[in-house]
Specification:
This protein has 79 residues and is mainly alpha-helical. It has two helices and two strands, in the order ααββ. It has a two-stranded antiparallel sheet with strand order 1-2. The radius of gyration is 20 Å and the shape is elongated. The protein starts with a helix and ends in a 20-residue tail after the last strand.
Length: 79
């Protein structure tokens, strides 16, 4: 969003009124809804699982690295 703002100010020489009316709503809409839609997609596909290296859950398979290890069946997230 910040890159688009600077590009429109410097390169396109857009005035503040036009940026507030046209560019800002697009930047805010994309910035709010894209992460929300991605998280809902990952949740619906059961891809948010615990990770061994971070103290939070992330996108991946469960158990961790189950596709590379023989004898371990993937419960979620593995194909």
């Amino acid at each position: 969003g910040l890159c688009a703002f600077y590009f429109s100010i410097i390169q396109l020489r857009t005035n503040d009124r036009k940026i507030r009316r046209c560019l800002e709503p697009i930047i805010h809409t994309v910035g709010l809804f894209l992460p929300f839609l991605m998280s809902l997609t990952f949740l619906s596909l059961s891809l948010i699982n615990p990770t061994p290296y971070e103290p939070w859950c992330g996108v991946g398979m469960y158990p961790w690295n189950c596709l590379a290890l023989d004898g371990i069946e993937c419960v979620r997230g593995g194909r």
